[in-house]
Specification:
The chain is mainly alpha-helical. Helices cover 68% and strands 11% of the residues.
Amino acid sequence: MSDNIIEFPLKPKRKKSDMESVIDNALAKIPPKDREKLKFELIKTIDSYDSFFTEWRLSIPDGISEELQKQIYDIAHREHERKMRMLGEIIKLKIKNLVSEYHGMV
C-alpha cells in the first residue's frame, strides 16, 4: 500500500474572493490600526488550521486499476472542497467573533 500526502495549493486569485469581501465588510467600521490587529488574529486562526485543511494522507492499494485510482482521487478532491467550505465558515464565524469582542471593548 502506498501512502501519499496530497497537497492542494491555492491558485492565485485575480479578483477579490467572497471571503475577503466578508472580512472587509466586517472590518469596515473599525479604525485602520485596530483593523490590522483583528486581521492578524484572523490569520493566526487560519494558520492554526492550515495542515488540517491543506494536507492529508490518502492510502491507495498497490496494483489497483487506473479507473479506481481516478475515482479515489475524485473523492479526495470533493473532500478537499468540503474542507475548504468548512474553513470558510470558520473564518466567517471567527471574524464576527473578533468584531463583536472589539465592539465590546471599545
